[in-house]
């Protein structure tokens, strides 16, 4: 099977966030409680329950207000995969579609220091946060919807855009 890649044309993005919602719905992810901070950026960052995020950049150019958008998610790096280099448990691999995936059965351990997240130049893998704010040694990120791709479909975020 040939590797896949995702191309996001931000010149046609209108900031609807349908990609964010499609990802959350497909993976049945929880919500992130947020507060208004004076920006339309919501949630403020990727987290263990938000693997796809539309970043808003609000700026003024020549006296006119402009929104610029950027899609943020795992880039599914080619080898070497920095996050995998930081994983002591061998939980991060690349599958036959080119997606960098995390084996949640292996993503645990007493010696884990969340180095996978520290090694990622894009700050993508995010640790699970418990109800009282405790940080678990278990990380999550975009999986490129490998279940959908294996069935000949496109990732959930791309299907709704």
Task: Set out the fold topology.
Blueprint (H helix, E strand, L loop, with lengths): L17 H10 L25 E9 L2 E9 L9 H4 L6 E3 L5 E3 L12 H5 L6 E4 L5 E6 L5 H5 L5 H5 L1
Antiparallel strand pairs: 1-2, 3-4, 5-6
The major sheet is characterized as: 2 strands, antiparallel
The H/E string reads HEEHEEHEEHH
Distance between the termini: 25 Å
Structural class: alpha+beta
Question: Can you describe what's shown?
Answer:
- The chain is of the alpha+beta class and 161 residues long.
- Helices cover 18% and strands 21% of the residues.
- The protein contains five helices and six strands.
- It has helices at residues 18-27, 82-85, 115-119, 146-150, 156-160, and strands at 53-61, 64-72, 92-94, 100-102, 126-129, 135-140.
- The strands form three sheets. It has a two-stranded antiparallel sheet. A two-stranded antiparallel ribbon has the order 3-4. Strands 5-6 form a two-stranded antiparallel sheet.
- The protein starts with 17 loop residues before the first helix and ends with a helix.
């Amino acid at each position: 099977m040939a590797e896949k890649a995702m191309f996001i044309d931000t010149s046609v993005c209108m900031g609807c966030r349908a990609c964010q919602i499609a990802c959350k719905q497909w993976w049945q992810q929880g919500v992130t409680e947020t507060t208004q901070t004076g920006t339309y950026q919501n949630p403020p960052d990727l987290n263990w329950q938000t693997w796809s995020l539309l970043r808003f950049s609000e700026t003024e150019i020549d006296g006119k207000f402009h929104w610029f958008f950027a899609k943020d998610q795992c880039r599914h790096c080619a080898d070497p995969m920095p996050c995998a280099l930081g994983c002591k448990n061998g939980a991060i691999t690349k599958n036959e579609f080119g997606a960098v995936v995390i084996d949640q059965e292996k993503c645990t351990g007493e010696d884990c220091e969340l180095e996978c997240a520290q090694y990622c130049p894009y700050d993508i893998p995010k640790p699970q946060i418990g109800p009282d704010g405790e940080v678990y040694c278990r990380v999550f990120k975009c999986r490129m919807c490998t279940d959908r791709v294996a069935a000949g479909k496109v990732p959930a975020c791309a299907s709704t855009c």
